[in-house]
Write a structure and sequence with these properties.
Order of helices and strands of chain B: HHHHHHHHHHHH
Number of domains of chain B: 2
CATH architecture of the domain at 1-78 in chain A: Up-down Bundle
CATH superfamily of the domain at 1-78 in chain A: NADH-ubiquinone/plastoquinone oxidoreductase chain 6, subunit NuoJ
Low-confidence stretches of chain B: none
Order of helices and strands of chain A: HHHHHHHHHH
Oligomer: heterodimer
Helix content of chain A: over 70%
Largest sheet of chain B: none
Number of strands of chain A: 0
Number of helices of chain A: 10
Mean pLDDT of chain B: 86
Number of helices of chain B: 12
Distance between the termini of chain B: 47 Å
Distance between the termini of chain A: 88 Å
Largest interface: A-B, 27 and 31 residues
Shape of chain B: globular
Number of strands of chain B: 0
Radius of gyration of chain A: 28 Å
Strand content of chain B: under 5%
CATH class of the domain at 1-78 in chain A: Mainly Alpha
Largest sheet of chain A: none
Structural class of chain A: mainly alpha
């Protein structure tokens, strides 16, 4: 069990450290890279808790897809980092206030979690015992039976958001030379090739 | 002290030994993969391939390795030093770490986790970071263009790959890789899910940035893409990572579609051969196809690559997931 203990402290310490580096590093690309490191450590912590499915989904969705786009955008930005820094002190009170509110809310939630009746049992064993049913199966059963309508509603919200993003950014440009694979394949030989008998000295 | 020994030191030593017993053969396999590629391509193009160093040129990969490590390391001006050196390490590390969940035979696996497929998928989706970081940190136009192409390409093909894996998982009812292979005892999934098998292989080509989808390093437009500025050991790490990834993707193909360690026919002369050998043979067959494709196909144009990923593979794999689920439910074949 010592190994697990060591793993926990390594993950936790690295998570906090990389979280601090996200907001304190000078270069935004470094910030994103530290954010990815933080995601990774969080996944490690989930794994130690036995929440293997959540851990893997965290890595696949956040690290593998969302953070790639993040990194993509941040790398393409051409910004003057020093100018960006100068404004930082002005918004510090506002940022601090938001942080404080979030922290208070988090404390309230955590406080309520312990105090509320019946929750302790749930917190202790969120899934039925690990031996009988695996993590993924337990989540799937819950999500596709009890919460199926909410789950579908989430899907629809995401779909609408995606369509909205496409509609907002799509613009039809005229005069673009585009490959039309269907038209290419539909061409017949006699439509495009003509064989002529050319007599010498006269041309076509 | 005894508790420390039994609870910490002994498990640690055993674990390290197990890890070494996977990584060392893997690295040797990577070395000979480079040799095999040159030999096969040579044979296909009526050349000899490496034949000078050692018998049949067998020592060529080691000579190449020594040469690479003895060369000068160059850090481009204006490059981001830390990210520049971390990028190849990440590529190499990810290519190795995925092997932790690959079952070589029944019970012969470093860690038999319940979400094996998801783990592999997660690790392969991280591969893009090594390339993007390398492209950005090099402070070079070519490298950056290569990195951007690679990011777009790998993200696109992961989507259809995920759907293909889902259609396999529907037939198995488990995310565990050992369970997936055991579910293929009656028939390999390559037969009922044949179109998915082909598409998975093509996606694997795109995912490992191999020809005909090697646009991130397309040397005719981008010199060498994201690797332009690399030399010596960092370059060697990229190279090793690419080949280890190829072997990994072949292993994934054989586990998901070709029945992993199972023998092709379940009776006497075939079952005498141990499962590890069958598994290695299947991986070798996939790798041969990787090289074969490289020797025969011209490189895709970038817009065609994107079109193939989003307009052909994605709708078709989505359709196939629905079809598989429909068939399984209709005939009551859903795994318990």
């Amino acid at each position: 069990m010592i190994l697990q203990g060591i793993a926990f402290y390594v993950f936790a310490a690295l998570l906090v450290a990389s979280g601090v580096m996200v907001i304190s590093s000078r270069n935004p690309v470094h910030s994103v890279l530290f954010l990815i490191l933080a995601f990774f450590q969080a996944a490690g912590l989930c794994l130690l808790m036995g929440a293997e499915f959540i851990a893997m989904i965290l890595v696949i969705v956040y690290v593998g897809a969302v953070a790639v786009l993040f990194l993509f955008v941040v790398m393409m930005l051409d910004i003057n980092f020093r100018e960006l820094r100068q404004g930082a002190m002005e918004v510090l009170p506002l940022g601090g206030l938001i942080g404080l509110i979030l922290f208070a809310e988090l404390a309230a939630v955590l406080g309520g979690w312990i105090v509320a009746p019946g929750v302790e049992k749930l917190a202790g064993s969120p899934t039925p015992s690990i031996d009988t049913v695996s993590n993924t199966v337990a989540l799937g059963r819950l999500m596709y039976t009890q919460y199926v309508y909410l789950f579908q509603a989430c899907g629809i919200v995401l779909l609408v958001a995606m369509i909205g993003a496409i509609v907002l950014t799509l613009r039809h440009r005229v005069g673009v030379r585009k490959q039309d694979i269907g038209a290419q394949l539909a061409r017949r030989r006699d439509e495009v090739v003509a064989i002529r008998k050319v007599t010498t000295g006269e041309g076509v | 002290m005894a508790e420390f020994l039994n609870g910490f030191l002994l498990p640690l030593i055993i674990m390290v030994l197990k890890i070494l017993s996977i990584t060392v053969p893997l690295l040797v396999a990577v070395a000979f993969m480079t040799y095999a590629e040159r030999k096969i391509m040579g044979a296909m193009q009526l050349r000899q391939g490496p034949s000078i160093v050692g018998p049949f040129g067998l020592l060529q990969p080691f000579a190449d390795g020594l040469k690479l490590f003895a060369k000068e390391q160059i850090l481009p001006e204006g490059a981001n030093r830390v990210v520049f050196y971390v990028a190849p390490m990440i590529t190499f590390f990810l290519a190795l770490v995925a092997w932790a969940v690959i079952p070589f035979d029944y019970g012969l696996v470093l860690s038999n986790i319940n979400v094996g497929v998801l783990y592999l998928f997660a690790i392969s989706s991280l591969g893009v970071y090594g390339i993007v970081m390398a492209g950005w940190a090099s402070n070079s136009r070519y490298a950056f263009l290569g990195a951007l192409r690679s990011a777009a390409q790998m993200v696109s093909y992961e989507v259809s790959m995920g759907l293909i894996i889902i259609s396999v998982l529907l037939c198995v009812g488990s995310l565990n890789l050992t369970e997936i292979v055991k579910a293929q005892e009656t028939v390999w999934f390559a037969i009922p899910l044949f179109p998915m098998f082909i598409m998975f292989f093509i996606s694997a080509l795109a995912e490992t940035n191999r020809s005909p989808f090697d646009l991130p390093e397309g040397e005719s437009e981008l010199v060498a893409g994201f690797m332009v500025e690399y030399s010596s050991a960092p370059f060697a790490l990229f190279f090793l990572g690419e080949y280890a990834n190829m072997i990994l993707m072949s292993a994934m193909t054989s586990i998901l579609f070709l029945g992993g360690w199972l023998s092709p026919l379940p009776f006497a002369p075939f079952t005498w051969i141990p499962g590890v050998v069958w598994f290695a043979l299947k991986i070798a067959a996939c790798l041969f196809t990787f090289v074969w494709v490289r020797a025969t196909m011209p490189r895709y144009r970038y817009d065609q690559l994107m079109r193939l990923g989003w307009k052909v593979f994605l709708p078709f794999s989505l359709f196939w997931v629905v079809l598989t689920a429909g068939v399984l439910v209709t005939f009551g074949w859903l795994p318990k």
